[in-house]
UniProtKB/TrEMBL annotation, chain A:
<dbReference type="Pfam" id="PF20641">
    <property type="entry name" value="TAF1C_beta-prop"/>
</dbReference>
<dbReference type="Pfam" id="PF20643">
    <property type="entry name" value="TAF1C_C"/>
</dbReference>
<feature type="compositionally biased region" description="Low complexity">
    <location>
        <begin position="828"/>
        <end position="839"/>
    </location>
</feature>
<dbReference type="InterPro" id="IPR049087">
    <property type="entry name" value="TAF1C_beta-prop"/>
</dbReference>
<feature type="compositionally biased region" description="Polar residues">
    <location>
        <begin position="750"/>
        <end position="780"/>
    </location>
</feature>
<feature type="region of interest" description="Disordered">
    <location>
        <begin position="692"/>
        <end position="787"/>
    </location>
</feature>
<dbReference type="InterPro" id="IPR038801">
    <property type="entry name" value="TAF1C"/>
</dbReference>
<feature type="domain" description="TAF1C helical bundle">
    <location>
        <begin position="560"/>
        <end position="759"/>
    </location>
</feature>
<feature type="domain" description="TAF1C beta-propeller">
    <location>
        <begin position="314"/>
        <end position="450"/>
    </location>
</feature>
Automatic annotation (TrEMBL), chain B:
<comment type="function">
    <text>Component of the transcription factor SL1/TIF-IB complex, which is involved in the assembly of the PIC (pre-initiation complex) during RNA polymerase I-dependent transcription. The rate of PIC formation probably is primarily dependent on the rate of association of SL1/TIF-IB with the rDNA promoter. SL1/TIF-IB is involved in stabilization of nucleolar transcription factor 1/UBTF on rDNA. Formation of SL1/TIF-IB excludes the association of TBP with TFIID subunits.</text>
</comment>
<keyword id="KW-0539">Nucleus</keyword>
<dbReference type="Pfam" id="PF14929">
    <property type="entry name" value="TAF1_subA"/>
</dbReference>
<dbReference type="GO" id="GO:0000120">
    <property type="term" value="C:RNA polymerase I transcription regulator complex"/>
</dbReference>
<dbReference type="InterPro" id="IPR016629">
    <property type="entry name" value="RNA_pol_I_TAF1A/TAFI48_chr"/>
</dbReference>
<feature type="compositionally biased region" description="Basic and acidic residues">
    <location>
        <begin position="7"/>
        <end position="18"/>
    </location>
</feature>
<protein>
    <recommendedName>
        <fullName>TATA box-binding protein-associated factor RNA polymerase I subunit A</fullName>
    </recommendedName>
</protein>
<keyword id="KW-0805">Transcription regulation</keyword>
<dbReference type="InterPro" id="IPR052669">
    <property type="entry name" value="SL1/TIF-IB_Component"/>
</dbReference>
Length: 901, 448
């Protein structure tokens, strides 16, 4: 193997960062990496400088990926968000925000919701102090409380710190007596556990390393064009999609992949976390050698000879690992299952020897596993490699030497020889000054990129990803990165894949996938005796949430559901390159936690012209949605909307509001609106406009509102089909009244003139996004909302001079993304529509507002303390709200009521 | 868990140069933590408008860069310059570096940018962020070098060399050394150009003497430029290579040797295989004794057993008088073939086949046995599977032949690889095969 004859100059300093005062010479410019020093002779540099393909770019065919398979029948729950976990009453803005877990609120909710669990044991202990039945006993003991009386007092009592709650003296006495026991013992016992749980959840929300490596992989199919995708399906991701075969996909360069047949499933005991496949030596059955891992379809006529007959499939679950052998025609044959007591964190198949695996566990042990010989522990260290880090995450992979492995944890990566004495090894990478790491940087993923072939990179390269950067390390030169690139991904890069070159002599694409769905593609060259380097600037690929614009317009609740679904974390990435006559096609598949597989095709565009040549068209023509694509999305959406929503884990107990209502009903009811409201509340259903009778509606309904007849609304109407149509038809009578049409343009003039060129687009974005409460959206929009801000720079330089069309597009994309990031709690949309549709009459609106304000104040002040009304009203007067109001055009300001308890 | 909770609740006092990333549990910084925290509404003060617009603008630029929309990035860059006036001192200090990174990136790729634009931008940026003068100068030089503007690059480096700001810190010193070394490299380029011209001239020519004089005046300047940097730990391959070439040209063999020895054996330096390769090549040119060469390659063998020099190392060892060396020669060959990237190296297999025969003739089967013991478990699957037998036979007959011989020796004639290859009927190789079968029968280390 060739070693680069001359390496790039680099300072080498040892130890942790910050100890020595040394400059950071890794300047982080992609172009700097593209430069190589002229080898020896200067006269070469003028015409002999490597002609870098500066314009290397993979162009997406559609603005976003498309769903490949219909959504699964199981409901999917997006899980916890930061709002659920963090304390909302943060004092003020900090440049370094504090994450404060909201234990108090969660705890008080727990006590309310699961009082039986929290207090049952105490209740048993205090049984003698309660008189459960019968008349009042006239014992002298003051420590016995009559339960009947207390319940009577509590009947009708509105809990959760209602300001008008009335305390009887009995209650008061009980609470004074019971408090030391009830309050302290429960909170001290449970609080700690709850805190621990919340902290774990929060850490998991920030970084969920269970899916490191990805759970989507390729297997060879019957013919070279037909391949099988392996991925977990089902609500709990515990079914490995499978039939007689796995999901078969036909890949042809010219068109979209076709799905063949309907896969069955292998039901597993736990969620699948990682899927690895490998074809080594064609399983000794085929005539020809086949490159491992990613079979490259060849346009040769004798393709079938090149096709591997079988492959190995390894699956990691939380506590189990399993290995299957999948032959081209037959069923997958389970080879062996392994139970990992402490939990498995990583599994990898050897690219050199068939049937050899490496498995690592949370205990710090790394084992070599072959179905024939069983397990062999080759490394064990409960401590981390370089410095102490509490994370039990471990990873292991193979190297160019079949008997040498890499073992990684958060602090570094070590090369160990399985034949050598245990414990010895060489550090390949350490989080420290050697790689000029940042403070707090940790290893998130390591991957062996080796693949032998005449036209490939060195087979000794390893990819190491941290939350900030990406490193390419050569195992022959430990500790000195061959390449470093700041990826700047807004989520953890846990997925990576190196693809074969699309064309001989072309740069190899390296895909990097963040957990949040962001994708980056790096072009890496460096064959033979040269160092690996970037060829051209890395590019970002569309993520699943970019596909939102392909879906038809929806009512807010469904829109939310869709958006949440599209923003589900990515847990698998599989790609392949299909050579075609015109330009190579990159076919990219991604899997989300919701079990959706999305697909996208990209075409390679190369500009090989000399670097100084001005290219006439520098900006890529923006891809647009084809009718087939939107039709595909619509079908998928239809199936998605049929999926029942996830059942609530636990429903809040209903307190005796019926009792209250009954009491109120005796009073004189004036007007139809309160009556309708009350009826709806009594039945626990949505309040709809028809319940309120014909009202002089002054405000538009939620969701899209057509302005004066213009192109946009016409197009929208044409686009509206399916479940929305009926609803819309119903609404249209009312909404197209002339009185309201006049109002909207008038309101819009309130926006500054500088926005005039954008207003229609802004309105569109307001329409696409679901209505939302300012309290929820403002922080999301805040850091990215320069549009609404009176920045002089922006207004003068950008808006006043007219906006270039391409930037309008960006702005629109941006605006479309703006309001919601899926952080809204489920169910809030229902009540929103409920509220917004009742905003017609001032009186109702007022009462509801008060109600909502009160409720939200309870939510914000855990422990049941009430706020003075002035304070509650001040919540609504924060500047953020005004911003949102400007942004959402003339949409009325809506509030989010307190959800349940 | 306890430190984690403390981390969460206690306000951290530490300064965060990145500004965006925040500590989470376990000391790990997550750049996306801020986003999560900000998604929770708070009632308090919000970030300033100025900071909001700048950070939004930054994200627009980054997005445009990742989409290769240089024109759009340039337009946003125009607005982003406001960050230089940030009231937050920390951000203001970090601004020039950020602008340089983004700006140079845009100007490098922008279809309408020219060297002049880049020069103007670089010169401005050097003086805006005084602290970045040296790093920007270095990168500017690289840019000019890439465009073949050696004189400009050299001028640029001379300016940077004399630049001083405040007290001379060690970081500044390292950078100045680097600047000087690059200058030396540029001088080396001109020198080697002159050398080439000189080699074309006749020695009796009048021009020859002036040209050679010119070259001599270069040498001492260059040596000063290089010597400071190559004392600092790092990877300095291009500098060391050119420095040694110049030293050798002027007959300073001892100096060259010292430089190379220091580069290869200094423990503070990373274990760079090239350092040993350079030293070996130098010693070879010098016609150093074999012992010396072997000792250099022995270290390279320990670092990179798959290096292509290993076959040369094997040849040296094979010729050696010491039994120990000859034994090592076998180990080296086996070591090379352990690697997946070398599995199809015909020369290596040829060497091994030949050497195995030689060793068995000299009756040292124990050596082979020892090497084989550790590989017995995986070489058959790795090299001698029937898959490889078929594929090798189809792709490279010579390779298949050599491998079959080795397989026969090591695994006996019953092994799959040997059986498959020996069954192939081939006109040309028939005689060879016959000999091979005979040899295997006679010498195989496997007892029948």
């Amino acid at each position: 193997m060739d070693f680069p004859s001359s390496l790039r100059p680099a300072l080498f300093m040892t130890g942790p960062l910050g100890l020595s005062d040394v400059p950071d010479t890794s300047f982080m410019c992609s172009w700097r990496d593209a430069l190589t020093l002229p080898e020896s002779l200067p006269q070469n540099s003028e015409n002999g400088a490597p002609h870098l393909a500066k314009g290397l770019l993979w162009e997406p065919d559609t603005p976003g990926p498309l769903p490949l398979l219909p959504p699964g029948p199981d409901p999917w729950d997006p899980g916890l968000t930061a709002q659920d976990l963090l304390f909302r009453g943060g004092p003020k803005f900090r440049r370094q925000p504090q994450a404060v877990l909201d234990v108090t609120e969660q705890f008080s909710r727990f006590l309310w919701d699961h009082g039986d669990i929290a207090f049952s044991s105490l209740g048993k202990l205090m049984l003698e102090n309660f008189n459960l039945e019968g008349p009042r006993s006239y014992s002298k003991k003051k420590t016995v409380v009559s339960v009947k009386r207390i319940l009577e007092d509590l009947g009708g009592h509105q809990p959760w710190g209602c300001p008008w709650a009335y305390f009887s003296h009995r209650q008061r006495r009980f609470s004074i007596l019971g408090d030391p026991i009830l309050g302290k013992s429960v909170s001290s016992l449970l609080g700690e556990l709850l805190y621990e749980e919340l902290a774990t959840r929060w850490e998991q929300l920030l970084l969920d390393d269970a899916f490191t490596g990805g759970a989507l992989a390729w297997l060879p199919g019957r013919t070279p064009q037909v391949r099988q995708l392996v991925y977990p399906a089902g609500g709990a991701l515990d079914k490995l999609s499978r039939g007689p075969d796995f999901q078969e996909v036909r890949l042809t360069p010219g068109s979209d992949p076709r799905i063949l047949g309907k896969p069955g499933h292998i039901q597993l005991r736990g969620p699948v976390r990682q899927v690895v496949t490998c074809t080594v030596q064609g399983e000794c059955k085929t005539v020809n050698y086949f490159p491992p891992l990613l079979p490259e379809p060849d346009p040769d006529p004798d393709l079938h000879l090149l096709h591997p007959s079988s492959a190995l499939l390894a699956v990691r679950s939380d506590y189990h690992c399993a290995l299957w052998k999948v032959s081209r025609q037959g069923r997958p044959v389970p080879l062996q299952v392994l139970k990992v007591e402490k939990g498995a964190t990583g599994i990898n198949l050897s690219p050199h020897l068939p049937g050899e695996l490496v498995v690592c566990s949370r205990s710090g042990a790394v084992c070599l596993w072959t179905p024939h010989d069983g397990l062999r522990q080759i490394y064990k260290d409960p401590e981390t490699l370089v410095f102490r880090d509490p994370s039990p995450w471990r990873w292991a992979d193979f190297t160019a030497h079949p008997r040498v492995l890499t073992v990684g944890d958060r602090t570094g990566v070590k090369i160990i020889d399985t034949q050598g004495p245990p414990g010895c090894g060489l550090l390949l990478f350490r989080v420290g000054a050697e790689a000029s790491c940042q403070k707090g940087e940790r290893v998130l993923l390591t991957q062996y990129l080796g693949e032998c072939g005449p036209d490939s990179l060195q087979p000794t390269l390893h990819l190491i990803c941290t939350q900030f950067s990406l490193y390419l390390m050569d195992e022959r030169l430990p500790l000195v990165p061959m390449l470093k690139w700041d990826h700047n991904l807004p989520s953890a890069p846990l997925l990576a894949q190196l693809l074969p070159p699309p064309r001989p002599g072309c740069a190899r694409p390296l895909l990097l996938g963040g957990q949040g769905g962001q994708l980056q593609l790096l072009h890496i060259t460096g064959e033979g005796a040269s160092t690996p380097r970037l060829a051209g600037h890395p590019q970002s690929l569309p993520s699943r949430s970019d596909s939102l614009s392909a879906f038809p317009l929806l009512e807010p609740r469904s829109h939310w559901q869709l958006q949440e679904r599209l923003q589900a974390p990515t847990i698998g990435l599989a790609a392949t390159i299909l050579p075609s006559s015109s330009s190579p096609v990159l076919s990219l598949f991604q899997l989300s936690t919701a079990g959706d597989v999305f697909h996208q095709c990209l075409h390679l565009r190369e500009d090989l012209g000399p670097p100084s040549d001005p290219r006439p068209n520098c900006c890529a023509p923006t891809a647009s949605w084809s009718p087939q694509a939107t039709a595909c999305c619509r079908r998928w959406l239809k199936a998605l909307l049929k999926v029942p929503p996830a059942p609530p884990v636990w429903a809040a107990p209903t307190f005796s509001h019926r009792h209250l209502l009954g009491f109120k009903e005796q009073q004189k009811v004036e007007g139809k609106v309160p009556e309708g409201l009350r009826a709806a509340m009594a039945q626990g259903r949505l309040l709809q406009q028809r319940d309120l009778g014909s009202l002089p509606t002054t405000e538009p309904p939620p969701g899209p509102t057509p302005g004066p007849t213009d192109e946009l609304s016409e197009r929208l109407e044409a686009a509206w089909e399916g479940p929305v149509t009926a609803w819309w038809e119903q609404q249209r009578d009312r909404t197209s009244r002339p009185g309201r049409q006049l109002k909207r343009p008038k309101r819009r003039t309130q926006l500054s003139n500088t926005f005039s060129s954008l207003s229609s687009r802004l309105d569109l974005s307001g329409a696409t996004s679901a209505p939302h409460s300012p309290d929820w959206t403002s922080p999301v929009s805040r850091p990215r909302s320069p549009v609404a801000l009176p920045s002089q720079e922006l207004t003068q330089d950008l808006w006043a001079q007219g906006i270039p069309s391409e930037r309008q597009q960006t702005l629109r994309d941006y605006m479309a993304k703006l309001p919601l990031q899926g952080n809204t709690p489920e169910g809030s949309s229902t009540s929103l529509s409920q509220i917004s549709s009742t905003q017609a009459t001032p009186s109702t609106q007022r009462t509801l507002r008060d109600c909502a304000a009160e409720l939200s104040s309870h939510r914000d002040t855990p422990g049941g303390a009430t706020l003075p009304s002035s304070q509650t009203s001040s919540i609504w007067a924060t500047p953020s709200r005004q911003q949102v109001r400007i942004l959402s055009g003339s949409q009325p300001h809506r509030k989010k009521p307190r959800m349940g308890f | 868990m306890s430190d984690f909770s403390e981390d969460l609740l206690r306000p951290t006092k530490e300064d965060d140069p990145a500004g965006r990333s925040v500590r989470s549990g376990s000391g790990m910084r997550l750049p996306w933590l801020q986003k999560h925290v900000e998604s929770v509404p708070t009632r308090g003060k919000k970030e300033k408008d100025f900071a909001q617009t700048t950070s939004a603008c930054l994200s627009f630029i980054q997005d445009a860069l990742l989409k290769h929309q240089w024109q759009r990035a340039a337009e946003y860059m125009h607005s982003y310059l406001q960050t230089l006036e940030d009231s937050d001192s920390q951000k203001r200090q970090a601004a020039p570096e950020m602008i340089w990174k983004l700006g140079s990136e845009i100007l490098y790729y922008h279809p309408k940018s020219s060297v002049e634009t880049f020069n103007a931008f670089a010169d401005r940026m050097k003086n805006i962020g005084v602290m970045n003068y040296l790093t920007i100068s270095l990168q500017h030089t690289l840019y000019l070098l890439h465009h073949g503007l050696l004189d400009d690059a050299s001028r640029n480096l001379s300016q940077a060399e004399t630049w001083r700001y405040g007290e001379k810190s060690s970081s500044q010193e390292a950078l100045i050394n680097l600047v000087q070394a690059y200058k030396g490299l540029l001088q080396y380029y001109t020198w080697s150009k002159k050398k080439k011209e000189l080699s074309e001239l006749d020695e009796d020519d009048y021009a020859y003497s002036t040209a050679s004089q010119n070259m001599f005046s270069h040498s001492w300047k260059t040596s000063i430029n290089f010597s400071a940097l190559i004392q600092t730990p790092g990877v300095w391959d291009p500098f060391v290579k050119s420095y040694v070439e110049m030293l050798e040209f002027y007959g300073d063999q001892d100096g060259a040797r010292e430089v190379l020895t220091n580069y290869a054996y200094d423990e503070k330096f990373p274990s760079n295989p090239n350092a040993h390769v350079y030293l070996y090549n130098f010693l070879k040119r010098e016609k150093a004794p074999r012992e010396k060469l072997i000792s250099v390659l022995k270290i390279l063998y320990q670092i990179v057993p798959s290096h292509k020099l290993m076959l040369e190392f094997h040849r040296l060892l094979r010729k050696s008088d010491q039994e120990e060396h000859r034994r090592l020669g076998l180990e080296v060959l086996f070591g090379v073939l352990d690697f997946a990237g070398c599995a199809k190296n015909v020369t290596a297999w040829q060497c091994l086949a030949k050497y195995l025969r030689q060793i068995l003739m000299r009756s040292h089967p124990a050596w082979i046995q020892e090497e084989w013991n550790s590989r017995k478990s995986w070489w058959p699957g790795f090299h001698f599977s029937s898959f490889w037998a078929k594929s090798d036979w189809k792709e490279d007959r010579a390779l298949a032949y050599e491998k079959a011989f080795v397989a026969g020796i090591l695994l006996g004639k019953g092994c799959k690889y040997f059986r498959y290859i020996s069954k192939q009927d081939h006109q040309v190789l028939r005689k060879k095969f016959k000999r091979m079968k005979k040899l295997v029968k006679k010498h195989s280390i496997v007892n029948p």
